Amino acid sequence: MKIGLVLEGGSRQTIFSAGVLDTMLDENIEFPYIGGVSAGGHAAMNYVTKQKGRLRYIIMPTKLQRGEKKAHRILDGIRKESRALHYGAAYGHIPFDFDTFFASPVKCEFTLTCCETGRPVYMSEPSDPKRLLDIVNASCSVPMLFPVAQIGAKHYVDGCVTDPIPYRRAFEMGCDKVVAISTHYPGEAVSDFRKYSAVLNPMFKHKYLDLFRALMVRYRRYQRMFEDLERLEKEGKVFLMRPEVDLCDLFETDLDKLNASYFHGCDYARRKMNALKAFLKAE
């Protein structure tokens, strides 16, 4: 029985996932396949290397990492902090363990959206630290907030546009069942790019028409995705974990709120642990 783990992004809301994953690491839970999207890519990397606490640390603004309680909402926001998260953190106070990652037998993939096709692309990297970080950076390139990323001859934006929780990909990769961790609580409104069509039209419609179309249907795709996940959960093929309450938002800069979301993830995982282990063992 091959069971995969797939991890949604959500910028700083991913600190909930950090709590869940750190608790799972305490229980020595392993997966042969892990897929991450956007900030969920950082979650995937750290789970492969079993670096407990690292995701919680790096997802925070650098001011909070230095011991301050609050950061400025704009001046220390995600856009300003992106290079520190995607590149600087790999060699920072808690460096990423590239050696363990590349030596791991775990198949770890990252979801990107190809601008030329408007379709999801799944990438992995077995040996090159720079390319690995480039892939994760591209997976996090939210349209309008960040520039389009280039890898090779193609251009990419955030994987959340086309495949926010890549559970179908996990099944394609041979997984019989999937543990899926979402960062959005039930009923939470997700980004509806249709609201920004006046901005997105000149940015993408002529150069990347298929990407523009993908952005316009992303909201409906997201709704259908959760309907499908809930169906698969009832069938015993998916174990879905997600926040129960709204504790922090995508661009949170308040330490108390970020910590509350992390500890909610820890508590949630502990309460779900018996059911999770039963799911992992069931044939």
Automatic annotation (TrEMBL):
A motif (GXSXG) lies at residues 36-40. Keywords: Hydrolase, Lipid degradation, Lipid metabolism. GO terms for biological process: lipid catabolic process. Residues 5-171 form the PNPLA domain. It holds the Pfam family DUF6363. It comes from the Bacteria. GO terms for molecular function: hydrolase activity. CDD domains: Pat_hypo_Ecoli_yjju_like (cd07208). The active site is at residues 38, 158. This is Putative patatin/cPLA2 family phospholipase. It comes from Hallerella succinigenes.
